[in-house]
């Protein structure tokens, strides 16, 4: 990948690199590095560093902006913000999969969309920004992805979409939400459930899961997304 190819990613993240070797390494999956052998390092070391930079930036942000929250609550929120699921969503926002350097095998098996690979690369990019531009540059990059009004969004952060949906609906006391199991299939050891969530009898979301609870959560997540709430 040439320096010219990095311009689209730089525009996505709002940062211009001085040392392009850093971002090249950050985007280099181990499968690509192994194919190139000694010519190229994988992004695993940068991922290690990026994880620490991400943690300190998010910790400081939460500490400074939410003085009313106790340590235990801050810890849970930080964990939700830096988990693989969140990092995967952040990576999708900047279309990071388009820029990954993968080995042929990983490319052919969908590595460009794999959540773990995207989350790791996101952390590696953080480290590349940190090494290239310092902590303030990394902080600016990271905080671009941190949602505002975190206490009000705790249920979504923790993956409890049913509670989050209920909190939204409670703003209008006359509204009522209920969940309906509409399909159940498969053998006892491997069942699939399909659930609809309804607002005043109108279907506002549909979810599929390996349990009724999981299907209900997925239905609530779809409903929140359709209502314009980021999930």
Portion of residues within helices: 40-55%
Spatial order of the strands forming the largest sheet: 1-2-3
Q: Quickly count the helices.
A: 12
Shape, please? globular
Radius of gyration (Å):
21 Å
Descriptive notes:
- Helix 8 packs antiparallel against helix 9.
- A hairpin with a 6-residue loop joins strand 1 and strand 2 (192-199).
- 55% of the residues lie in helices and 11% in strands.
- The model has no long low-confidence stretch (mean pLDDT 90).
- The protein is built from twelve helices and three strands, in the order αααααααααααβββα.
- The protein has 231 residues and is mainly α.
Quick rundown:
By secondary structure, the chain is mainly alpha-helical. Helices cover 55% and strands 11% of the residues.
Outline the secondary-structure elements.
Layout: H1 7-13, H2 20-26, H3 30-36, H4 44-65, H5 71-82, H6 84-93, H7 104-108, H8 115-133, H9 135-143, H10 154-157, H11 161-169, E1 177-185, E2 192-199, E3 202-209, H12 212-226
Antiparallel strand pairs: 1-2, 2-3
Helix pairs in contact: 2-8, 4-5, 4-8, 4-9, 6-8, 8-9, 11-12
For this entry, give a set of tags.
231 residues; 3 strands; single chain; 12 helices; 55% helix; mainly alpha
